[in-house]
């Protein structure tokens, strides 16, 4: 069995590759010439890397024609919400065109590949009182260009399934974190700031944005197991929430990180970290996914936070 992982050098892609190798699957991954390789350098003997620009239809057609994968985990994306306000067109083009090129190539070669697409809880956006935990049937009220790009990816998955019978599973993943999380994202950013203070690399002040937002965090290692099960047992064309079913304010998450460190820290708001519109609460109902696949989150949030701190402590 051969799996293609787009964005294999990224945070989720590297964990996906590790999971697939343990399953004995042949792993091929896409990289771009500017991809950072540090997340997958330990896997390079066991995986095959192909240079592919997903925005370029010729590049994608060559990849799909040569590889003809059984499984596709489509994880490549511009995934940082604030970047999407600075470069909305680039985010939408990258995320939407990349996926259309992939679908079109699969369709043209007449492949029966099973395709997981990485949709996002950001699609739900503004959630009204009484709508939590959020089900897949909730209205989508996206609040960022990134969220729009994910709504488009999500519905393209639905449409290519309906129009051409592509075997697409739409995973709507809530926030996820763990070792190797990019340092822009809140859990990793705060963990790295704490570790930099521990190491004496910066003064004991931690800079933060909106601490009132509530997020539902799942460990990335649970998420990639979910993506595998989604392709094994999910119904084509369907959308499934992947979430933990609990949420924390960002302030509570910071308090958990601080409880695993012994530094004394002053917390300061950095206005540049505030967003034009921030999603107030994301709390997912993952029962539909559980019923389809048997998946449950297994790694407790406290352990994820400890592992994230350990990750940053181990970095040079
Ligand atoms: C599901 C979804 O999950 C992620 O999107 P996100 O929720 O925007 O993730 P984040 O870690 O950037 O922010 C989480 C919350 O934390 C608040 N916050 C406070 N202070 C800081 C801060 O200093 N930095 C950041 N980044 N956020 C901060 C911020 O305002 C927001 O309310 C991506 O994986 C995305 O790809 C995705 O699909």
UniProtKB/TrEMBL annotation:
Pfam families: GDP_Man_Dehyd (PF16363). It comes from the Bacteria. Keywords: Lyase. Gene3D superfamilies: NAD(P)-binding Rossmann-like Domain (3.40.50.720), UDP-galactose 4-epimerase, domain 1 (3.90.25.10). Its EC number is 4.2.1.47. GO terms for biological process: 'de novo' GDP-L-fucose biosynthetic process. Residues 4-307 form the NAD(P)-binding domain. One of its GO terms (molecular function) is GDP-mannose 4,6-dehydratase activity. Its cofactor is NADP(+). The keyword Lyase applies. It is an enzyme of class 4 (lyase). It catalyses: GDP-alpha-D-mannose = GDP-4-dehydro-alpha-D-rhamnose + H2O. The keyword Lyase applies. PANTHER family: GDP-MANNOSE 4,6 DEHYDRATASE, GDP-MANNOSE 4,6-DEHYDRATASE. Belongs to the NAD(P)-dependent epimerase/dehydratase family. GDP-mannose 4,6-dehydratase subfamily. Catalyzes the conversion of GDP-D-mannose to GDP-4-dehydro-6-deoxy-D-mannose. This is GDP-mannose 4,6-dehydratase. It comes from Cohnella abietis. The lineage of its organism: Bacteria, Bacillati, Bacillota, Bacilli, Bacillales.
């Amino acid at each position: 069995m051969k799996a293609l992982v787009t964005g294999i050098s990224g945070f989720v892609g590297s964990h996906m590759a590790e999971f697939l190798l343990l399953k004995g699957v042949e792993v091929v991954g896409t990289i771009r010439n500017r991809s950072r390789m540090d997340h997958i350098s330990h896997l390079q003997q066991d995986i095959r890397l192909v240079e592919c620009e997903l925005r370029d239809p010729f590049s994608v057609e060559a990849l799909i024609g040569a590889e003809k994968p059984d499984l596709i985990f489509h994880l490549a994306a511009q995934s940082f919400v604030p970047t999407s306000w600075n470069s909305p067109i680039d985010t939408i083009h990258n995320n939407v065109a990349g996926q259309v090129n992939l679908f079109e190539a699969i369709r043209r070669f007449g492949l029966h590949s099973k395709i997981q697409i990485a949709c996002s809880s950001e699609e739900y956006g503004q959630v009204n009182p009484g709508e939590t935990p959020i089900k897949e049937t909730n209205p989508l009220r996206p609040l960022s260009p990134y969220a729009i790009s994910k709504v488009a990816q999500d519905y393209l998955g639905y449409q290519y399934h309906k129009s051409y019978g592509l075997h697409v599973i739409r995973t709507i993943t809530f926030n996820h974190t763990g070792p190797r999380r990019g340092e822009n994202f809140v859990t990793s950013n705060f963990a790295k700031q704490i570790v930099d203070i521990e190491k004496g690399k910066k003064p004991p002040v931690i800079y933060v944005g909106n601490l009132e937002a509530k997020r539902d965090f799942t460990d990335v290692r649970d998420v990639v197991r979910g993506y595998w099960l989604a392709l094994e047992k999910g119904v084509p064309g369907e959308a499934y929430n992947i979430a933990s079913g609990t949420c924390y304010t960002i302030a509570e998450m910071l308090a958990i990180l601080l409880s695993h460190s012994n530094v004394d820290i002053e917390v300061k708001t950095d206005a540049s970290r505030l967003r034009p519109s921030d999603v107030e609460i994301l709390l997912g109902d993952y029962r539909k996914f559980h019923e389809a696949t048997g998946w449950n989150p297994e790694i407790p949030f406290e352990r994820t936070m400890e592992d994230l701190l350990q990750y940053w402590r181990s970095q040079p």
